[in-house]
Specification:
By secondary structure, the protein is mainly α. It has one domain (3-152). Helices cover 77% and strands 0% of the residues. Helix 3 packs antiparallel against helix 4 (83-96), helix 3 (49-76) runs antiparallel to helix 6 and helix 5 (106-119) packs across helix 6. The longest helix has 28 residues, at 49-76.
């Protein structure tokens, strides 16, 4: 079978399993299943393979951390009225951190930040960890789906 068909089969099977198992594992974090799928997409957007996996995990988790830091600063300093400025500073930092090779996948950091903000985790450390774990799981599933597709694709005759 072609690589595209093998990839479709691999991703289809694994996403079905992720939707079922992820929903059971992350019962307190409803955004976890979509977060995993977003990280999965980030894996492919980052170029796949081991480098894409590393960049996806590092950037997605950095987004989680930056939103947690922003929420802690906003809450501790009672800056709710200017939260938008704090978030703007965090966005700038996310871009600047891309000078570090492992964090150079800017869209991944924004995806991690966005799903964390959407989760409503705020300063709840457990909720933030659950979002981060779901993002890591999604990136790893992306890597597994790529490897699985390579294994089942028909190799061209030489």
């Amino acid at each position: 079978m072609s690589m595209l068909t093998a990839l479709a089969v691999s991703i289809g099977v694994l996403i079905a399993l992720w939707v079922k198992v992820g929903a059971m594992l992350f019962t307190t974090t409803p955004i976890a299943v979509p977060a995993g799928i977003i990280a999965w997409a980030c894996f492919y957007a980052a170029g796949g393979k081991m480098q894409g996996l590393q960049k996806t995990i590092a950037s997605n988790v950095s987004g989680v951390v930056w939103i947690l830091v922003a929420m802690l600063v906003i809450g501790a300093a009672n800056l709710g009225g200017v939260a938008w400025i704090i978030i703007g500073v965090v966005a700038a930092i996310i871009v600047l951190q891309s000078k570090i090779p492992a964090l150079s996948f800017i869209p991944g950091a924004f995806c991690g930040a966005a799903v964390t903000a959407a989760s409503g985790a705020g300063t709840d450390m457990k909720a933030n960890v659950m979002v981060a774990l779901a993002l890591v799981a999604g990136a790893v599933l992306g890597w597994i789906s790529e490897a699985g597709a390579g294994a089942i694709a028909k190799k061209p005759a030489m």
